[in-house]
Amino acid sequence: MTREIAFELLSRVENDDAYANLLLPTLLRRANLDGRDAGFVQELAFGTIRNRSLYESIIEKASGRQLLDIEPAAQLVLLLGVHQLLEMRVPTHAAINETVNLAKAKANKGSVGFVNAVLRKVASKDKDDWIDAVTSKLPVLEALSLQYSHPMWIVQAFKSALSSRQMQAGLEALLASDNRPAKVSLVALPGLSEPQDLADADSLGPASPIGVEISGNPSSIEAVREGRARVQDQGSQLMVLALLAAKTGCPDNKWLDICAGPGGKAAVMAAVAKQRDVELICNEVLPHRTELVAKALDPIGKFELTTLDGRDLGDLPEKFSRVLLDAPCTGLGALRRRPEARWRRNSEDLVDLVKLQRQLFESAWGTLNPGGVLAYVTCSPHLSETTAQVAWAEAKYKGELELINANEILNEINPNLRLDASLRTCQLWPHVQGTDAMFLAMFRKSLN
Fold first, then answer.
1. Whole-model pTM?
2. Which residues are in the SAM-dependent MTase RsmB/NOP-type domain (predicted)?
């Protein structure tokens, strides 16, 4: 049953453009699986998707066939089998026998013997030997791209982003971190819960002072069920905490989250807004995402929600002391959470995204009171979406803005972050801080 569910998930991700993290709970509920069996399905399916290009090369090497010459169903069966053999603690005989049975159920009859033979060949070497076999003749970056199953354009983007901060030695560690499942982090919403009070908390968060890491099902925790705590990466928590800690040069009485869906950062802003008796408006462009924001904020209190194109808000008469622009981006900073994302994005996506980010920035800047603070956030370390956008903003609004030192503020929030305060923008990393690769730049609008 577990392998059949993993096969269905891969098939629907491949053929229907399904999102693995959204589809998996539905499949598990339908099969009435939980606990260890659910964990097995997730590791098998997600791990296979993450390592896909490496496994495809190994299959071609072991079979002597090009992937295009193997029927699609047999390809998926083999990918699942290779992951069990090379990455999971599944006995070799069980991995081969169960995967062959899966081939009998899902692939053409003529492919069953082929699947059996290829898996036995794969089982004759360990993962390191196979990596060497398929990468030994490749240039360094191409070898890393294949070994860690990251498209080459992403490897190059990561190298550039790390190099811009003199961290290029960490490239392989970053790629490896994307292939390890992220720990589940919770945020204790200020004023509604405390990190120490969250049941089943294995440890207080290493990055965020209001975060914890847990093992197990978050819904088993009362505060999560009641909406007083919620699942949220600690990097995302820090982005909001930094914005709310920055000094404003105007009365601090009205905040805006311009791209608020699905509501995680908005919930943290709302909890603090309630404590400080500040008005908060949350905007989303799509009605169904506005509904997600409403659901996230409902346990906290009543807040104004709007459903408007964020690019049109700058001309409205209302002005704000703090604005969060969590901009749409490639999402390259969260590849460990979204296993199929690396295979769906491409470098051409940047053209439209960079344009949209600038349009949203212009609008957000227009909503800001003189002395107010704007936080520009992306879940991507790609330089086109991060420091290049900062350079664009500084050139466009020269004399009108001050680039606030985000790293100084974050180091005050959590000294253990040890961020480089000689750099004014913040870039978090999964292999360093244990968070998603979140980027933050904060700007204060001139009073003149």
1. 0.95
2. 159-446
314-369 pLDDT, tens digit each = 888 889 999 999 999 999 999 999 999 999 999 999 999 999 999 999 999 999 99
Q: Is residue 379 annotated as part of the catalytic site, yes or no?
A: yes
96 C-beta neighbours (distance < 10 Å), count:
21
Q: Where are the domains of the chain?
A: 2-130, 140-178, 184-231, 234-445
User: Using N-to-C axis directions, what is the helix angle for 52-63 and 112-122, rounded to 10°?
Assistant: 100
Q: Which two tokens stand for residue 301?
A: 């209190």
Q: Which CATH superfamily is domain 2-130 in?
A: NusB-like (1.10.940.10)
Spot the catalytic one: 250, 259, 282, 379.
379
Percent with pLDDT over 90 in the chain:
91
Gap between the Cα atoms of 419 and 428, Å rounded? 9
H helices of 298-386, in order, are 341-344, 349-366
Whether pLDDT at 199 is above 70: no
The C-alpha atoms of residue 378 and residue 441 are separated, in whole angstroms, by 9
Q: Are 166 and 70 contacting, i.e. CB atoms less than 8 angstroms apart?
A: no
